[in-house]
Amino acid sequence: MANRIEVKYKLGIDSRGEVIKNKLISLMEEGAIPQANINSVDVVDSYTINKNVPKETLKLIAESLTNPVSQIYQIDDSFKENCDFALEIGFKPGVTDNVATTARKGIEAKLNELFDTNESVHSTRYLLINGQELNQNILNSIGNILANPLIENIVVKSGNDFLNNGFLPYVPQVILENKPTAMVVPIRDISESELKLIAKQGILDPITKIRRGPLALDVDEGIPIKIIQQHFEKLKRDPTDVELECLAQTWSEHCKHTIFAANLDDELSATVNNIYKTFIRGATNKIRTSWKNRQKEDYLLSVFKDNSGIIKFNEEYAITVKVETHNSPSALDPYGGAITGIVGVDRDAVGAGLGAMPYNHRFFFCFADPKSKRQLFKNKNQESGLLEQKILSPRSIMDGVIEGVKDGGNKSGIPTPQGSAFFHDSFSGKPLVFVGVDGILPLKSANRNSWEKKAKSGDLVVMLGGRVGLDGIHGATFSSESMDSGSPASAVQIGDPITQKKSSDAIVKELRDKNLYTSITDNGAGGLSCSVYEMAKESGGANIDLNKVPLKYPGMRPDQILISESQERFTFSVPKNKIVEFMKISKKHDVEATVIGEFNDSKKAVASFNGELVLDLDLDFFHDGLPQRNLKTTWTPDLYKHEEPFIKEQNDLTNTLNSMLSRLNICSKEFIYEQFDHEVQGGSVIKPMVGKGKVDSDATITRPVLSSMKGVVSTQSLYPRYSLIDTYHMASCAIDTAVRNMIAAGAKLDRMVLLDNFCWCSSDEPERLGQLKRAAKACFDYATVYQTPFVSGKDSMFNTFKGFDENGNTVKIDALPALLISGQSIIPDVRKCQTLEAKVPGDLVYIINSTKKELGGSEYHAMIGESDPNRNREFVGGIVPSVNATFALEVYRTVENIIESGLVASCASVGVGGIGVTLAKIAIGGQLGMQIELDSLLCSPAAYLVKRIDHVLFSESQSRFVVTVDPEKKYLFENKLNKIPYACIGFVSENNSFTISKSDKKIIDSSINDLSEAYKKTLRGY
Amino acid sequence: MSEFKPKTLIMSGYGINCERETAHAFDLVGAKTQIVHITDIIENKFLIDDCNILVFPGGFSMGDDTGSGLAYANIVRDNLSEQIEKFIERDTLAIGICNGFQIMSHLGFFPIGDKNYGTSKTALTFNSSARYRDLWVYLSNNQEYIESEDQEYVKSEELGTGCVWTKNISRLHLPIAHGEGRFYAPENIMEQLRSSNQIVLKYINKDGSKAIGDANPNGSLDDIAGICDPSGRFFGLMPHPERAIYSVQNEFFTLDREYRSRMDIDMPKFTDCLTIFDNAVNYF
């Protein structure tokens, strides 16, 4: 029988109720939930103990869950207080419940006995709500906003019902009735249409008569499934469901990146065979060859072959870097998707080389406007015509994603300083959630090169970390498709940072340096099916017994065990003579480790279940059986032609600047940075916000080794809106910005690497692939000039929403094609780093490099477009910023030298919003006034082709900096600039005034207070 | 720096995550530090018997699920209560930072006005914003506020909290990073706390005046950021001094450097936050 323990804070201590109340009130004001009065909200936490426990023991357990100073508890009774409604939220069966896990462990320790598989603990939380005009309907809306119905169970009780009955024990267990076996799936003698159904919708389950979920083997007119069919015809047998599911995972776009590896053909330019090899890895190879020819040190240790890129940091350490996306899961369950994303990418550091310790998190979010009221539905019922499966609101998605990354980062003890957010309507169906991690590892571990690893034949296959459940099945195949009504709910998972923290502590603090394994990789997409057989390539084969895999609950089928994406797991190859110590150390860290098989050199991928072979495939076919794809591309210039919009010239731009600062893509993201612990581990130097006025910094700096002053500079940039004009420039500007942001912080070009994360849409359309090809080409062109190699990358090709709007019309929303460029660079001495904010009154303000009339796709155009009531389309414009890489390189070398020599008091990289926004940020950051005269700039080579002031201020021309300079250093500074166009445009002042004038006329006349308010107000309170 | 290297045990495991930088701070001032996993201590209880300084670093022990620090404190209490009792009786020091402060509070390291160790008297609960926050704050080692910037600052010894760890410290500038840091105690306990001089650190405005708004970032009663036991040997605080020991860690590092360079003054390598750790080592 199950018992329930409830814990409540004493009066006046728990701030959560008040905060929820205020949130509900503001959501009612916005119209997100129906209007009512809410007087108070109280929160009660509860635990259901599903195990026979004597009453006295129950009391001990309750005491261990309560802080007697601030809390009280009750057993098997609710806190029956008067309320108008009570609303309880608990997890649905099978969803990870981290609070319950902690409670269970505590109870196990108290009882000194472990729970059986049919015993469990479950956590819930309920709210006591008092107010007027509340009704069941409103409570349902509140429930749907505070909880996610996909993964959480919501119970609403009226005040009377609650007073009489309270809440009862809640036991959401997964019960699988079937006796699991593998089955043979006939594919040799079936109709073409049946084969297609299997390929698209999955294997037909003989018991439920429902298809098990997408295999995504139907692309290219079904070539993948036909290849499989032919292979089994040769073998003279049919595959098992395990084999089919396994191949579908391994061959998925998500795992194999078949589009980047494809043969891309078009009518205009030459065919490109494999844009990844040609443009991305091609750039890196070209750079390394040039280093070799110039006898320059090659500091890249491992690129494109491991879970992360690995480069040399100093004579003792290497650093790793990796960025991933977790878009589709975050659209369904923003919290679960995001926390799984960030905790998952950490395994790419811990699984890199012999295991690196994560020391720096990155994030970048693309959301729709959180105030947007647009409603979208995934499905329309064909019979009733009713709209179904409503997409979460942009606000819910944003809140959930931020909460997920917050918990994932903070609870793992890994700082999360680096990142920002970009807002555009095209992300309303599916957000982009980029998450990344930098790690550190010693160059040598137990006398081995730490960036190399190789499983040996005879080593044991060991799985370490969390247990396997139904969570995340079909994740890899699901994200390889667009989101439509068939997207499976089981693709949702919730990460558990504490289990992972314990696992990674065991690995990087003990197992690695005691030489207890020969190879390691993480379990991500495709689960064991990908990790084990990927490592099997190193030894030449592997054989595992699926009965040995520890499960969360009994009854799972072998195919489910093999492809489950349950989180927090690593796979190791452990020499037999080391297994005892390996197990002992894992146990000490309270991490489960299990031997599940053996690596061999059989050239086969093998798995058995109940003593029978359920997977028996040639390793070669398994990995390389899928032929290169042939895809058509087109590039139709007319599609990207936008007129230059007519914008009336204004004499006073004060309001314009204020409005620009309040734009979602420019304003302060303080509410995000403050929630992410960006200082844990003690390495933080440049933080996400700088200066007394706390403005967002374009780069952050961390010292991974506390005893050393050497630092790592990180940044990220993306320009999705430029894709409306030309993806080539979208990509080149992202690269230029990443490089420039790092230079501005004091980084060195000769130790600077890049990562490419492409998030594309509708990648089954030739035109989108044509855009992709152009963007990839830019990667090659710019990286090779800057000599900044790509060391890692990833792509997510189907960020497209297909469904219905609130009127039932079919809609297809393509997310703007985006390339996130992440930069990692080394600064030899962080004491020489620089930040963007003004520091000392009297300092001179300079702009370095030319401003051109390049406003296509700019934030300024977007703003003017939105404020024009007669336009329902985006203001784009024709001239997008383009980058002269050769000249920019000269500018960057010069600025690098200027910062190194200590000649500037601040250095800002000019980005979105142009110099107008940059100048304001410099002043806000320093909380110092600024007086700018544009005359000298307008007649200098730095801007001689631009006639209008708004163009000068808001053009997004690349490769520019604004710096402030001590007047005493004026000549030294100017001498360094040599041939580079620059202009001295004003000075920093002690007062509160911010002015920009031309010919003695004030065009902008504002104050630091006003600008700060404009910059901070938009997202304050989120 | 004292000759004697006090044996310093730094607790880790189960989601504690600031052990590395905390050990680094103690290493810098000459302590003999050892990071130990809680399971190792439970297996080798003697480790506590000869240690001079016990450290509970920050982190998210057990994910803070079921209440911050509570689950970890239960493990310590269930397995090590005898060792902890003996440790308290000896002439030892202990510090709890952030999650460590929460753990030490649960364990009863901070009796108020008497020596009844082992019972929790104070609590650290949800920030008033009910939200996790990471930001820099100013602290005063003092129970009095000064009225304005030009007023002479009263040194802590003259008021005397008797806390070993904060000797020679008047003000600190360092980060907080927590979701549950709001100091709470019932009013009778608060009165005893004041009268027994156990309030060590308070959040203040930058100019030293009483904290307004964000200066008290979590809504702590009486702006309390840190307290000690009546003997002054056991110290708990929510902010993170170990994240602010180098001047390059300071949020205004580049600004400070610019001013100093114009006045031709070198940047010091370390900040006042290191004094906390130095005081502990010099106690022995």
> What's the total number of strands of chain B?
11
Alpha carbon gyration radius of chain A:
29 Å
Question: In terms of structural class, how would the helical and strand content of chain A be classed?
Answer: alpha+beta
Binned, the helix content of chain B reads: 25-40%
Summarize the structure.
The complex is a heterodimer of chains A (1022) and B (284). Chain A is an alpha+beta fold and 1022 residues long.
Structure description:
- The complex is a heterodimer of chains A (1022) and B (284).
- Chain A has 30 helices and 43 strands.
- Chain A is an alpha+beta fold.
- Among the domains of chain A are: 164 residues, Phosphoribosylformylglycinamidine synthase subunit PurS (Mth169, Chain: A, 2-Layer Sandwich); 189 residues, PurM-like C-terminal domain (Phosphoribosyl-aminoimidazole Synthetase, Chain A, domain 2).
- Chain A is globular.
- Chain B has one domain: Class I glutamine amidotransferase (GATase) domain (Rossmann fold, 3-Layer(aba) Sandwich), CATH 3.40.50.880.
- In chain B, the strands form 2 sheets. A 9-stranded mixed sheet of chain B has the order 2-1-3-4-11-10-9-6-7. In chain B, strands 5-8 form a two-stranded antiparallel ribbon.
- About 4% of the residues of chain B have low confidence.
- Chains A and B meet through helix 1, helix 3, helix 13, helix 15 and helix 21 of A and helix 1, helix 4, strand 6 and helix 8 of B.
